[in-house]
């Protein structure tokens, strides 16, 4: 960075570092979690100050969101759902352009990950039984805080409400300097507050509904999952899944079998997920219905090497480590190999996926200068995760998380093992067999048979499957109370007169695999991609377009007759059919309007290549046409029969535009837009 | 058909014809609908008798459903959802094989329809506002009948319950001949009964819950949509969409704009839809969550020709007309051109899509002998539809509807025009301009401005947009009551002192487009495809497999080292990588087990081509391998470097297996399965 800029940033960097040191110290001294949390929150705020300053000091970005949104709406990339009925917030319909762009992004994802890594794939129910989401923790923990207008029932997200109220106060002249400082401090701490703390603030400042001025209810938790009652009786409760991952975990056993019992393997799922946001805003970045693409890579917890790591080892990445964040430093560029070898990224498999994620994002057109991987701070990470990095894209909303990449250890499979009673683990051969002591119930089979009749077998099996701990517990209970409840069967001392200890030689051990999870929020990647590829022509600021790579561009090629003269028709028809034959999506624009204006229209919807049929096409043999590239607006003159395969290769990324201009003569023409 | 068989069928055919004539007569004489309905129901039952007899007399089909289901489950094509938690009826998870097969079917669908026909595509919200489904008619009409166990709340579909009760009665010895006949008659009529009629039967026979013996509630309607409350307040009601079509209709205006205002155009959508079935059964054929692929083709109601009809005109199709069904005749083979020219199929566009649907189904592997197009009988058709044909596949469950193809006329766009107040129509130039009389409000602008301030403009616009009828109504109301409510604005006579009549020359007319709708139930096509491609090896009835065409087969090629000797590894790795490089999904099976057993394993999951690396590969230069085709089990010996492109062409359907056996020497080897 520019030394002058660095000078301006230095004090902010120092503020971060000071606070980072406080956090480190508290952690080392084993301070209570609540204290650590408060200081981490302050750290985050200082980090944000620093980032805002960096953004404000960087060379002016001419990006104009309103202009882009106009193009998006005008050419129906996407729009709010049910617009003719007034629309509905937090939901979007993708028009032809948006839909094809997303589909092409996903097709590329499929090739890049599923095919290249030979992953398994599943497609599981979106309607999910409550019991599954109970086990995963979503029923208990997947919530935001809110308050209600006591009269209208209108709901407000608690943190948003408080922030809005405070911001209004700050804008009022009558607010004293002292009050301002108090309020600023409170805003700073908001993100880390408990529901009770926030509720106290609402009451202390006597906050009302910002819409009606009515009183507000007490703060409450609101679970973000949409409940669903399956079947007509209403007895079977479920939810729309809040993520796709659980479908993979609950099928782990079958997937392992499918993979002939071997680790590692990865399984992918692409599909919708749902979150009942309290008050969605920020367009596509916070919606109620969205597409995810998730991968669960299952591996031995003691061996997280990756056999293809060498292939990505030299990938340079912009990494923003937790340490750098605490020290007020900037992200650092390094190879993923350096990061893994140096211990910054927890293991090879996690590093491998980070590099592959970056390769994918760059391939579809994310700007490498607006991409970084940020490590979660310790208290951001789920308690079971070992390490977690987010691929973040810089947009006009700031840095936004687009892809998460986490080592979730054995958490998910353990939870579902507990929840379902089905062991989700592998048997790993021991290097040397070992002796283990078992504590075993010795049942009186006659007594059990008499008591449980046809269920006796199930009881016997449950007894045989008891862990040592549970057997100890049962023995104790039978001694102390004479009874023990085993999966709903009431056992008595008479049925289990004794227990015994046994030495057994075992050759395998049961191990719960670790899970490395790359998780893509497709809508966020899509939105970032639109911002990163939005362009305005230098010579005419009304000509806006998307510079999407051909591989994801919705339509690959346009075919334009110079005018609507009948003699052009056989050529345009034949050419368009030949291109379609190669499974390229073609757009024929034979509307009136100058050729320049029609180029502008095709540029708007990101069509990378355009072919024009003109008088020379008709009159000369061999028949030639012009082929134009969107970003450079360069054109060549090329025989019409060479067009289909040339465009196909360009669209598949097999050749570059330069190879075309090297081979065929340049065609110079005025692009009239009037 | 065999003349002997025809002799047996003749009386059943005659019974159909007799009944068909009764129906025709009733219709001609304009009999009440309820009478027609009853006789049509009897006709349907006779048709079913006839079909059952035809099926029972056809050459024995050796299909063994249990055997197929075993393979489906064992190799995880699909399984009941959340199986480790006991599963949930009516929902299925697709494993790697099922998921890839569906994805490949959809990719082919995309090429066949969207790309080849240059269709538009949308992806709309699944969470749908109530107002949309109110307009479409689903809120009021999308229901089944059911009764509840009054104590447990368990629900039963009314028709299923009655049928089950009657079947039990018929199986009891004590049931008299007379009772049997009555019951049989009632079963026959069940399908066409109203809820009240069925409810009377439940009470007359004193039917109880078949599970508990408890009393049953009165019959009730049960709407099959899943309700959803969007947002935290619970005030915004919606449903999970019951079909994908509505998303296209509500976006019609934007799509028309996108298509530069021109008709015809088609728009496709692929996605999930939901129906809360009362008691789902029949595996994948009746489920609560399913994938649809729908196309809405919008065209001028007065011009339903199709410019590509000539390309399909000679397609031979098995058509089962409504007439043939009424006459007890069999479906007839004819070209789609004959069918359209002869007036059997309502128009070219409908015929074009029927032919394209057939081409698609055959391409992905549906057995042409088990495919027919059945025309809806008059009373099966929605009242607004002009003509409707179902592509039906013959499975072990009988003939099942897989794809519908209907001319829905202007119904959907009219409904949403009414519901939203937004005109979903096109402006069609008139051949000659015509004079029309308008009845126009002449407002007092000052009065309106004073009364409505900033809303005055909206009121003026609403006044200008009034239809003649509404203007008449307003005039009358202002005269009689002095007031009129226009979109919530209260108007008085003082604001609209007068009305005037004006002659205007108009050059265009507003027309609501017709909709032709091909609608694919992907799960049903998928299931039929599995049945149609299930095979058992003649020489070993334990070797079952799916003979799926390469274009949809989940994995395209397997790579098998002859044994796990280290010297094979470099060859298998290099070959597998080269195949993967071409974006082919590859399965390397280096597990122990004879090569024959491994071939059997790869056959099971429908891998069409297999490459084996053996000692000759290692020892000879040029290195050669064997390439095997699944259905014929034929093998050739081919240089290893020629494999990737050869397999790629085979997988894409660019070359046929015969071209491979013509080119390379045959390789003969024992396929040991032991």
TrEMBL record, chains A, B:
GO terms for molecular function: ATP binding; glycine-tRNA ligase activity; transferase activity. Its main location: cytoplasm. GO terms for cellular component: mitochondrion. Residues 8-64 form the WHEP-TRS domain. GO terms for biological process: mitochondrial glycyl-tRNA aminoacylation. The keyword Aminoacyl-tRNA synthetase applies. Its EC number is 6.1.1.14. Residues 206-561 form the Aminoacyl-transfer RNA synthetases class-II family profile domain. SMART domains: WHEP-TRS (SM00991). Gene3D superfamilies: 3.30.40.230, 3.30.720.200, Anticodon-binding domain (3.40.50.800), Bira Bifunctional Protein, Domain 2 (3.30.930.10), S15/NS1, RNA-binding (1.10.287.10). The keyword Cell wall biogenesis/degradation does not apply. It catalyses: 2 ATP + H(+) = P(1),P(4)-bis(5'-adenosyl) tetraphosphate + diphosphate; tRNA(Gly) + glycine + ATP = glycyl-tRNA(Gly) + AMP + diphosphate. It is found in: Cytoplasm. It comes from the Eukaryota. Keywords: Aminoacyl-tRNA synthetase, ATP-binding, Cytoplasm, Ligase, Nucleotide-binding, Protein biosynthesis, Transferase. It is an enzyme of class 6 (ligase). Signal peptide: none annotated. PANTHER family: GLYCINE--TRNA LIGASE, GLYCYL-TRNA SYNTHETASE/DNA POLYMERASE SUBUNIT GAMMA-2. Homodimer. Belongs to the class-II aminoacyl-tRNA synthetase family. This is Glycine--tRNA ligase. It comes from Cherax quadricarinatus.
